[in-house]
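Human: I would love a firmer grasp of how sequence relates to backbone shape in proteins. Take your time, and here it is.
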Amino acid sequence: MTNAATTPPGNPAEANGQLHFPDGFLWGVATAAYQIEGAAAEDGRGPSIWDTFSHTPGRVIEGHTGDVACDHYHRSADDVRLMADLGVSSYRFSVSWPRIQPDGSGAVNQAGLDFYRRLVDDLLAHDIEPWLTIYHWDLPQALEDAGGWPARDTAARFADYAQLLQSALGDRVRYWTTLNEPWCSAFLGYGSGVHAPGRRDAAASVRAGHHLMLGHGLAVQAMRAIRPENQYGVTLNLYAVSPQSDSAADADAARRIDGMANRFFLDPVLRGQYPADVLGDLRQVSDFGHVRDGDLAVISTPLSMFGINYYTRYVVAAADPDIEREPYGRDPSAFPGSEDVQFVSRGVPVTDMDWEIDAPGLLETLQRVHREYTKLPLYVTENGAAFPDKVIDGTVDDQDRLAYFDEHLRACQEAITSGVPLRGYFAWSLMDNYEWAWGYTKRFGLVHVDYESQRRTPKSSAKWYAEVIRRNALPAQ
């Protein structure tokens, strides 16, 4: 495999009053194991860092945990039928590491592996392409106790785990994502502490980021040695970053946040090096002595695809004591070396997460990655919005979410027209679920979940998305 895209499957065109996507465009939905599965202590599953974190008082809003979540572990067949009704062509899901290896290494928990075998077989029976994410934040607690991602050995354990999964499922799963959003794992988990495991140590967060990427590279090499024909990639959460003003100080603030939010991962994975300016920004935090000879060559192991999660734009400014910092993940310790940068609200519409709605930022991000980093096929592996949905007379008329998807899919269509090899889009999320430190207070789903009854109710956005998929097109405006 090389970092060269195959010939694009044709450009979309406006015809018959519609904006068409290329033939074969992959339409999907996405979830994560801890957010939906429940069954936290069933069939041999061990504890993860999110089990520990969510059961620690004060860590998660209202003390919510993922113990039951959407009960997907027991209801997966019904949820696959929901996807089939939507007409999706692919389902991106993650595998719970402590369900497969309760202690993070050693023998396989057969009951856990069998659950994913059944899920994959059910998806294929409904003509839905399985897209497997190996790690979506649920590190086995035993590995955290041994040092977690700041410890180099965790990268080796991750590669072993990936090899195990590839051996068991690689004959039926073609698409493999190693990591989901390593920025969150490293800097929210070990920097700001707002995610599991809840540590606040800037130097440890930098080490964690490196070892996550090292684990990614080792995993790709291990899996490709078994099945070179499968597709291997990683998913980064990327942001369009803009300065508040034209001042040199605000421009430097934007450079610094772009460095930590985007380039800290993009450059090692796709260029085999850390950006020099980012190393300079971090010189008071880390001397990067944890980086060994050969690490960056492993981290930049060639991929066959690249995933981008996009939710919002960051607008930043140089330090101003009169501007209040924004919460949740924008704590200064989540951006080591850039503690004085201010995140600025522009007063534009926001989602229930207080994230600004900025579809042009998705176009900007897709074009930038293609122009500056890689000609690989790209996939939007997550995009979506939380809104305070309510069931009224048995329906959920979420026009705000519908409009969000419409705007962002138009950005995707424009990216394709401009030459970006975008091959698929995964809506986040299939259904309302456990939203990490926000518990069950935020709803991202196309399908509404009543957490007491576990009743699933497709929202207006689900019906709209199903029609877009059926037509492989958006209505022209």
